[in-house]
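Weekly structure sync, notes
Attendees: PL (lead), two postdocs, one rotation student
Agenda item 3: pending single-chain targets
PL asked that the sequence for the first pending target be pasted directly into the notes so everyone works from the same version. It is reproduced below exactly as submitted, 201 residues in total.
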Amino acid sequence: MARPSSPRSAALRQTLAQEAARIMADEGVRDFLLAKRKAADRLGVDHSGHNIPTNREIEDALAAHQRLFGGPGYDEGLRRLRAAAVEAMRLFLEFDPRLVGPVLRGTAGADSPVNLHLFSDAPESVTIFMMGAGIPYEEANRRLRHADGRKVEYPVVRFVAGEVRIEATIFPAVELRQAPVSPVDGKPMKRANLKDVENLL
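Predicted structure, written out during the meeting:
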């Protein structure tokens, strides 16, 4: 049975989470592990100690940091990113688009991309659609982990809408109800459909 943490230990975890969140917000660091290590170094704490916060604790601290220090400009920027997500989702409606990641969770920075999941048993149908619509894009791949431990590589299309970067990962249709796990907490990624995102606005 795990020993409950002391008030001092809990306070240190919170301080580390806040510092890691500040690093992610101010320095554009996206990797939780790197942010933890930088925060631990700056505060003189052992990286492997039990006082190191979880990704979820850091994300919660990041959301609080954005609300506290972002001001009206942050809210406006998040709304702009979500509005861009709505437009992109309407564009890709035939591919059952879902919004994921920081723009959905409310922790996005000003330069964060909008992350979408699209669904098609023929990934090339997405690129054919984009060529037909005259949208310049780049292709890439993304490796994602599933709850059963599998790591699967998926095709990605990247493009810019206005000044907003959009990154769309393409999944087989059957995986619409089988989300990969989140790097934040290891649980299935939260996905939002078009109506959900419109409601956020």
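Discussion points:
- The mean pLDDT is 88.
- The radius of gyration is 18 Å.
Action: rotation student to compare against the earlier draft before next sync.
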